[in-house]
């Protein structure tokens, strides 16, 4: 079998060589800490990380990035939050944004529970008279923000953006910004959304990410500024949603839609704050094959900003007697990877935009048409990239504490379940996930629970009420209430997880999965996961991780054997599309991560495993089999 060596010849190799001299920034004291494995981009980040405009769906013209090298100090107790180090020089230089446990942070620390960060900034003269908003893309897990010695705000939750109006705290000269980040990860007694992060990495659970891990920036806004934009555009041209402003005064709204890259003119629509609805005539639709986007210029009183949308409708329908997910009224077979979004140099933070998009381009090249963003939330720029590339997203809510059990003093083992307050906080953060991401056309499906992690599995079965809440906040998408394991009938999908071979919409199933339920859409939310060990220069060089490689569901000794096994497994899925009720599959996974060696790419992104010609053919066979099952002329016969 032919291996796809040509892929490896991509510019990556030479860039990797050039990259091996760590960049020292002598005036700041920052340098990358050599991580257990690098990527081709590790030493290209420099001291100006993530310079791109961070919020593409809501771009105000006047903004200033605060990303770069800040100061940081690690403390031993939560009490440190009560003593902001005003005017002090903190111990270490640190990269913002980054995970404090990552090499790119400059610290690569452990047990980073209690952290003060400091930086300073000046506000451009031209902003005088307007409000100044301080924005954080995400801080894991709790953030206390102090500006010029005064508390500016607090946020709980590591996966969502927050914005603080700091106008009244500013001076005309240099302003001091302090942020206290408290991140307990999975230490007792915390049961909080953390996804795959753990203080004790073990095979499928990874090194944690603490602190300010997404962009920080300031922007100028008028006195009555937009605080929330909810906008959905469907295949019939209907645009609906709601706009809220800081003063709640009713304000007129103008929106100008222009097809990106198109030659047609603009279409202008009037609305008002609060709920709105109007129609754009005959829009070019967003689909996976033609991801047409419309740029929108929005004016709400004095507040002017840019956004974009895609016109598309996600629904569910019966075709040839089978429940199917529909995009713009047609059954689209969803074939993606389980995408963890981890990096050996940045953990939760890709080294840069190019690196992040490299994963997405690789998936397209193999033949995937989307991905399942697995119990992690990405930066807004990631969703923008999927919107632009026509990749579907199944977006998971980050799970509560995934390691299910705790050993008590008497050596008995108990299953960890959230108490009522922890469950309420999980729900609040789930609602924020939906509210902050429902404008991205590429997201088609929300996932509430993964494999029972943090799921209360006795009656009342919380996934029923949570599904109602998600559908209430976002009626325009489908919901997977439980992806794998404990399915009690909630949501739009009957989602099976099985390794290595799939059991998709089929009359066979195994322990921990449920029989296929024909009243819902059959999908294989995880399968594959076959591994092939690699050489030490492509492995996460941490002994515990290397020791865990033998826990892989299946290890194939050569890349040829791995491709052969993949061919058989994809063929089984194809049979299930042809014979049964399979509407999509998610292959585990995009890249190797720590002790897992089952990626399309190794963890360092330097080696691609698939034989591209074979995978292209096998994946196209899935799309063809699905198309044949939804052929309208066949349906009439
Ligand atoms: C930093 O490095 C540059 C170039 O090597 C040198 O010119 C400069 O004096 C250094 N600055 C400090 C503060 O050491
Ligand atoms: C940070 O502080 C914690 C105590 O809260 C300590 O256990 C840990 O070793 C410290 N980490 C570093 C890198 O200093
Ligand atoms: C605007 O309305 C929201 C929701 O009703 C409320 O929480 C907020 O306090 C109001 N703001 C002002 C400035 O009245
Ligand atoms: C995997 O390897 C580790 C370390 O080499 C060893 O302790 C463990 O027994 C092995 N497990 C299996 C299932 O082979
Ligand atoms: C995987 O490869 C590494 C590096 O050669 C080696 O140390 C490890 O024992 C291998 N593990 C398995 C399960 O093959
Ligand atoms: C759909 O059915 C028609 C008539 O049976 C056939 O000619 C056509 O090739 C089918 N299309 C696909 C995509 O299978």
Q: Explain this structure to me?
A:
- There is one protein chain.
- This protein is of the alpha+beta class.
- Among the domains are: 5-219, Galactose-binding domain-like (Jelly Rolls), CATH 2.60.120.260; 226-314, Sandwich (Immunoglobulin-like), CATH 2.60.40.
- The chain is 18% helix and 30% strand.
- The strands form nine sheets. Strands 31-30-27-26-25-34-33-32 form an eight-stranded parallel β-sheet. It has a six-stranded antiparallel β-sheet with strand order 5-4-6-12-9-10, with no helix packed on it.
- Helix 3 runs parallel beside helix 4 (380-389) and helix 8 (559-579) packs parallel to helix 9.
- The relative contact order is 0.12.
- Mean pLDDT is 93; it is low at 1-26 and 633-637.
- One 2-acetamido-2-deoxy-beta-D-glucopyranose (NAG) is lined by residues 26-27.
What's this model, at a glance?
This protein is of the alpha+beta class and 637 residues long.
Features:
30% strand, Jelly Rolls, Immunoglobulin-like, disordered C terminus, 34 strands, binds 2-acetamido-2-deoxy-beta-D-glucopyranose, disordered N terminus, alpha+beta, 637 residues, 10 helices
């Amino acid at each position: 079998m032919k291996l796809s060596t040509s892929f490896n010849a991509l510019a990556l190799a030479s860039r990797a060589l050039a990259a091996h001299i760590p960049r020292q920034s002598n005036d700041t004291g920052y340098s990358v800490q050599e991580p257990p494995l690098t990527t081709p981009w590790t030493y290209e980040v420099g001291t100006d990380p993530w310079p791109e405009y961070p919020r593409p769906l809501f771009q105000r013209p006047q903004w200033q990035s605060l990303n770069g090298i800040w100061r940081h100090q690690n403390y031993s107790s939560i009490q440190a939050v009560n003593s902001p180090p005003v005017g002090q020089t903190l111990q270490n230089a640190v990269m913002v944004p980054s995970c404090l446990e990552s090499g790119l942070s400059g610290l690569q620390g452990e047990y980073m529970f209690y952290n003060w960060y400091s930086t300073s900034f000046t506000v451009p003269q031209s902003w005088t008279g307007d409000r100044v908003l301080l924005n954080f893309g995400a801080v894991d897990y709790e953030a206390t923000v102090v500006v010029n010695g005064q508390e500016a705000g607090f946020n709980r939750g590591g996966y969502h953006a927050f914005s603080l109006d700091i106008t009244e705290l500013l001076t005309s000269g240099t302003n001091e910004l302090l942020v206290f980040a408290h991140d307990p990860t999975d230490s007792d007694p915390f049961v909080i959304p953390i996804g795959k992060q753990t203080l004790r990495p073990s095979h499928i659970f990874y090194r944690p990410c603490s602190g300010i891990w997404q962009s920080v920036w300031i922007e100028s806004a008028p006195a009555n500024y937009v605080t929330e934009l909810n906008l959905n555009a469907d295949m019939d041209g209907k645009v609906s949603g709601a706009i809220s402003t800081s003063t709640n005064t009713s304000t007129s709204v103008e929106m100008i839609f222009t097809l990106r890259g198109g030659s047609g003119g603009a279409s202008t629509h009037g609305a008002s704050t609060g709920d709105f609805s109007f129609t754009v005539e005959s829009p070019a639709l967003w689909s996976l094959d033609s991801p047409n986007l419309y740029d929108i210029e929005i004016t709400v009183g004095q507040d002017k900003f840019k956004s974009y949308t895609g016109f598309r409708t996600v629904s569910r329908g019966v075709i040839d007697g089978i429940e199917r997910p529909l995009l713009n009224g047609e059954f689209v077979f969803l074939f993606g990877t389980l995408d963890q979004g981890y990096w050996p140099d940045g953990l939760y933070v890709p080294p840069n935009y190019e690196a992040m998009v490299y994963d997405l381009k690789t998936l397209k090249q193999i033949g995937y048409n989307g991905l399942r963003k697995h119990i992690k939330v990405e930066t807004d720029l990631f969703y923008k990239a999927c919107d632009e590339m026509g990749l579907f997203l199944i977006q998971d809510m980050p799970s509560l504490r995934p390691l299910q059990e705790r050993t008590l003093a008497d050596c008995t083992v108990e299953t960890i379940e959230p108490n009522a307050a922890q469950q309420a906080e999980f729900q609040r953060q789930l609602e924020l996930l939906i509210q902050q991401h429902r404008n991205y056309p590429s997201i088609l499906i929300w996932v509430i629970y993964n494999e029972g992690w943090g799921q209360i599995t006795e009656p009342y079965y919380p996934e029923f009420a949570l599904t109602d809440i998600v559908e209430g906040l976002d009626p325009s998408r489908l919901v997977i209430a439980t992806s794998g394991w404990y399915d009690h009938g909630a949501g739009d999908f009957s989602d099976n997880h099985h390794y290595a071979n799939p059991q998709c919409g089929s009359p066979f199933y195994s322990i921990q999965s449920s029989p296929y339920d024909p009243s819902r859409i059959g999908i294989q939310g995880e399968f594959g996961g076959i591994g092939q060990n690699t050489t030490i220069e492509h492995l996460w060089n941490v002994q515990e991780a290397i020791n865990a490689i033998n826990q892989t569901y299946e290890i194939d000794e050569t890349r040829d054997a791995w491709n052969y096994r993949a061919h058989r497994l994809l063929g089984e899925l194809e049979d299930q599309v042809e014979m049964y009720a399979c509407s999509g599959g998610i292959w585990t996974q995009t890249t190797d991560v720590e002790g897992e060696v089952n990626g399309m790419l190794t963890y360092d992104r330097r080696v691609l495993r698939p034989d591209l010609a074979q995978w292209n053919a096998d994946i196209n066979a899935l799309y063809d089999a699905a198309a044949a099952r939804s052929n309208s002329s066949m349906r009439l016969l």
